[in-house]
């Protein structure tokens, strides 16, 4: 019998494929940078097109200025040498998605980039400060993006005012740059005005964007109060939108709870919060309940969940909600928060941050016992040792719980080791956000040693100290013969 032996070496394409434009077409079908480089590494370099060679240079010769992950190229420095700009231009036949990852503060560097890369530009971050704003910058930047970037999909605008000096001129600059929201193909918009900058046109421009562009993601954070007409225009357009999927409204008092309008049925994620530690008034909560009622939200992040859960209008949304994050609940509303969890029977992921839960953890775990919770995150620096013990012992009452993140003092861990081990026998992941004033590494090493002495310890960890003893490494290292392991992070 004759055996054919293959020689090791480069793959030689059949004659019909041995054409640069064919190789380029195949390469650009790759789903990742790894696949692209693997394919081209097996093809003779003589079959690479100039565009393919230039793209691979992004992570080698040009790595100090750009980074690439097919089909994206991120420009991380706006002051590019001429040769780098030329190499990036050479990639354009591949139709890459180029994003300027470095914040743009002036029109001049943007003009040099847009002049060459504009046809491929999909994302840009703009950042303005009142002490560096120059007359006409906002208008020029918006014009460049509108006229030379037909594929623009994402815009992020940060405008920070630190003084009252020349505030009017700065407001004009911000309003001018907001004209970029009229781009017909924008999908993702993020705006942060630092709570001190007025933007009289913002509501109307967002209304135009929501009504005419394929809007999918909107972040609006820290916007100074505007007039009622502007807020009404925004809320009306939001109600009429059919494409938005993710909405974040944080500290935008003029938008309130959307003033009786409803949110798009297409919405999947909503984050809505006022100022830190602000008590949301009843009228706003009622409006918010009306807004979310007909949506099919998968994720909700808010600081008024307790009162919201009591509003009948919110019930249809809450009945199918899967992920909930609650922030900054004061002690007076802790009970309402816990009772409200009975209104979310499909809830799988729950995050509670600074919710004044001290002395209420046992009640919380009892309520969660009736839910479908699989992941629980409790972040509260004021939890006592008894609170931590209540959470860990309560894990066994929540049969579907598999992942727990809990903030607690490092010293307290020594006093709840039995509860910790019992919880680990059910969980797959236990992340203790330990708080230590000093000697943190010594404390963690001591905890690992104590756990290593437990018979059939359920934990494995990838963060053992370099000086850990062999018996600790043997007990807490990953092994294939274990029936159950819980990843532990301290």
UniProtKB/TrEMBL annotation:
<dbReference type="InterPro" id="IPR032675">
    <property type="entry name" value="LRR_dom_sf"/>
</dbReference>
<protein>
    <recommendedName>
        <fullName>F-box domain-containing protein</fullName>
    </recommendedName>
</protein>
């Amino acid at each position: 019998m004759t055996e054919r032996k293959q020689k090791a070496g480069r793959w030689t394409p059949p004659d019909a494929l041995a054409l640069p434009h064919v190789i380029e077409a195949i390469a650009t079908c790759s789903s990742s940078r790894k696949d692209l480089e693997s394919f081209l590494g097996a093809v003779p370099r003589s079959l690479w097109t100039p565009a393919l060679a230039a793209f691979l240079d992004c992570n080698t010769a040009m790595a100090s200025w750009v980074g690439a992950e097919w089909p994206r190229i991120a420009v991380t420095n706006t002051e590019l040498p001429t040769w780098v700009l030329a190499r990036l231009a050479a990639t354009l036949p591949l139709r890459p998605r180029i994003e300027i990852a470095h914040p743009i503060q002036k029109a001049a560097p943007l003009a040099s980039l847009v002049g060459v890369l504009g046809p491929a530009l999909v994302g840009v971050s703009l950042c303005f400060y009142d002490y560096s704003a120059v007359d006409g910058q906002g208008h020029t930047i918006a014009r460049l993006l509108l006229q030379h970037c037909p594929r623009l999909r994402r815009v992020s605008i940060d405008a920070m005012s630190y003084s009252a000096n020349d505030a009017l001129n700065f407001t004009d600059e911000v309003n001018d740059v907001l004209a970029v929201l009229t781009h017909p193909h924008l999908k993702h918009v993020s705006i942060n005005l630092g709570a001190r900058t007025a933007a009289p046109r913002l509501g109307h421009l967002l209304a135009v964007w929501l009504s005419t562009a394929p809007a999918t993601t909107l972040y609006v954070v820290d916007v100074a109060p505007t007039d009622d007409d502007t807020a009404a225009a925004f809320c009306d357009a939001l109600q009429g939108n059919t494409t938005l999927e993710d909405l974040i409204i944080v500290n935008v008092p003029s938008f309130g709870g959307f003033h009786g309008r409803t949110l798009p049925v297409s919405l999947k994620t909503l984050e809505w919060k006022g100022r830190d530690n602000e008590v949301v008034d009843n009228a706003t909560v009622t409006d918010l309940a009306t807004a979310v009622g007909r949506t099919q939200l998968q994720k909700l992040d808010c600081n008024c969940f307790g009162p919201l859960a009591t509003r009948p209008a919110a019930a249809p949304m809450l009945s199918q909600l899967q992920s909930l994050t609650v922030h900054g609940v004061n002690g007076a509303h802790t009970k309402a928060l816990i009772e409200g969890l009975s209104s979310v029977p499909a809830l799988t992921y729950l995050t509670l941050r600074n919710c004044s839960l001290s002395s209420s953890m046992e009640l919380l775990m009892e309520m969660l016992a009736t839910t479908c919770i699989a992941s629980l995150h409790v972040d509260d620096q004021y939890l006592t040792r008894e609170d931590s013990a209540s959470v860990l012992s309560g894990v066994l009452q929540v049969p579907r719980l598999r992942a727990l993140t809990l903030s607690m003092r490092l010293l307290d861990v020594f006093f709840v080791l039995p509860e910790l081990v019992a919880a680990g026998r059910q969980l797959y992941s236990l992340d203790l956000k330990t708080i230590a004033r000093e000697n943190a590494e010594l404390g963690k090493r001591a905890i690992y040693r104590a756990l290593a002495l437990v018979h059939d310890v359920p934990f494995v960890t990838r963060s053992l100290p370099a000086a850990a003893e062999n018996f600790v490494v043997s007990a807490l290292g990953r092994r294939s013969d274990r029936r159950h392991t819980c990843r532990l992070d301290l």
